[in-house]
Amino acid sequence: MDEETSSAISALKIDDTSTASPSTSSGGELSLDDRFSLVRSVGEECIQEDELRKLLEKKPQPVCYDGFEPSGRMHIAQGVFKAINVNKLTKAGCKFIFWIADWFALMNNKMDGDLKKIQTVGKYMIEIWKAVGMDMTNVEFLWASDEINKRPNEYWSKVLDIARRNNLKRIIRCSTIMGREETDELAASQIFYPCMQCADIFFLKADICQLGMDQRKVNMLAREYCEDVKIKFKPIILSHHMMPGLLEGQLKMSKSDPSSAIFMEDTEADVNAKIKKAFCPPKVIVENPCIEYIKFIVFPSLNAFPVTRKPDDGGDKVYMSFENIVSDYESGALHPGDLKPALAAALNTILQPVRDHFKNNADARQLFEQVKKYRVTK
């Protein structure tokens, strides 16, 4: 086994803190070591771990933040995976701020730049998180357009200071945070976008930036800014894993490609069909999206993975550890033909409360019907 493959397999290992079902109990009941382990389990990368431990030791309720563009239907990584991570952080005693980046979505031409549609999508996303089991006790949703207009001098002064201290090349390097490439022809608004996102961190007084690995560049920009202006305590970067698309070669889920992901209100038939077509090479766990779904979505939600098989194929088995799945799958004892139906069944169990909510709650149902009509723009 080469070093790259070994590292990739190690990344798929799962520990007790990451498989534990999200709890809503107070972080005050946990020791410092327990809190650190729980918070650290959220991130594929943490910059820096020593700073995180000191923060948890000195501040009873650190502020975590994530910003999201309301830009279309919500896929399972943004829905279930995010709820799992938020519940871990609030259990560890953190406050979590969702920055509903409606102005940012407009600047990035989402929903054809229609702010009313963007805000409707934002409301729909909040409904999903409520339905999927996110503990809202220490969660706050703030709309960027509202909050910036409340304290414009504070916000725009910070944006302008960040902008003047960085050259254009450094800002363009951050364009990947918008799902763009450095070589793309960017609108003027998209040039300004990274400066604003960097300013958000200070505006919200965030201690921890808990966004995906794809947002790393702008979070590092914030730490560099702290060095430039001599701010002692830099924001800690806790970047979660980016879930791959379901088809071969899709490194990231895409809202503009419905086949690349399970969406939060997909029907049972939708889920079954998508998982049936998903890339799942026998005996290979590296870059296997079905294996990643089991690790990051199924186990943290259900704490088990039941597989139904004919007696001749090994019979029914309930996996209580991710390592056992890896071992059986690599050996061929667990075949894709058995893993896929089991994965589809598990995902349908997880998503059923969301379907029920959008069926039984009139306001939620109306939001979803509106969002379905919107054209997703890149």
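Above is the first protein from milestone M3; the second protein from the same milestone is given next.
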Amino acid sequence: VMPCTPKVQNILDTFQTVAELGTEALSVYIISMCMRPSDVMLVEVFQREFGKADGNTLPVVPLLETIGALKDAPMVLEKLFSCKWYRDHLREDRFENIQEVMVGYSDSAKDGGRMASAWNLFKAQQAMVKVALKYDVTLRFFHGRGGTVGRGGGPQHLAILSQPPRTINSYLRVTIQGEVIEQDFGLQPLCDKTLETYTTAVLKADLIDFADVKPEWVAIMEKLSETSLAKYREVVHGEPRFVEYFRSATPELELGMLNIGSRPAKRRAGGVETLRAIPWIFAWTQNRLILPVWLGVGTALKKSFEDGDEAVLREMYESWPFFKSFFQLIEMVLAKADPLVSQHYDNELVDDKLKGLGVELRELLEETIEMVLRLSRGSKLLDTDKVEQRSVDTRRKWLTVVNLIQVEALKRTRAGDESPVLKDALITSTKAVASGMQGTG
């Protein structure tokens, strides 16, 4: 017997445990960061090798989490479905010819920004539906959403109705995380309302006629996505000052010691690429810049306006649910952002050599607000949703006070003060900002 590394032994032990627990205890096997058809087949092989004589194995669900994985999604399904063994395997009685695919909103947005993520998720689902129809396989989607807009969150009714045609099919599976669990299911009336929202949206998605997406809309969306992606990666991955600025201007470094998350803040040692999507969004939400959600959007819109696409953009906004819902969510996030609060974090916590980057980012924020208002023809953010506008405005003055407390707590902590009272202040202020911003799960 060949010796195993601890990592390999852990994998083998996992499949042994899966086989022992069986299908009554476990519903599916989800492959995180699935990139190739062989990832799925390897799990099938391990299940068969460790399984019982009856061959009763778990359905295997590929989780597509990055921009690259989403682009390769139709290829992955094509190769799987073109394999006779796999197709016959799906047609066994217990699988009912159903292939479930999980699409990840968090890591794809962290990888390339919210706009590129949203568009690639839309295209990937469309393309996968075509492959499934070709091979007569029933395709179901499992949406790995978080609470924040940057992780696919937002009003679920709107999100469901903006999905591509033939991707709901009377079925919805979605993750509910963090503060959103209590927010949507914490009380009986809230739970009833949430389930009613999901049910009506799923029914409507099957009953309404979807507007045809014009080729010129697709072409413009491609340009917007590419421009947004390039700007996002230019700043996040190409700006040499970015990582140091991020760790100074937000409480990212302190989040790990606060023990308020469900998982470690990082997958491994390293830069932004190693940070989990939850603390990535959470940290930027704390200093009110909320950078990952809007970065690249204003740049993309501005270029499209300059290219003479304004009339078509307005038509898309009025007639395409996917496009309108995306910008309504962006508008809500922009209304919660506060450049003055972000500037205060910079003034108190950031080294002078990095402050110039903060100025540049706030200029991009102001540009994004201007471009989104130009698209929606509003005079103020959230003019089309007065209830949400009033809610954000009401919370803002209280949030600002909490932000000031957090800045002082961070400043003293970084100066070496380790008193329990200060740590409590930091934890309390962090939770208070999260609560005030809402939807941070």
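Note on the second protein: Strands lie at 29-31, 60-64, 98-104, 138-144, 173-174.
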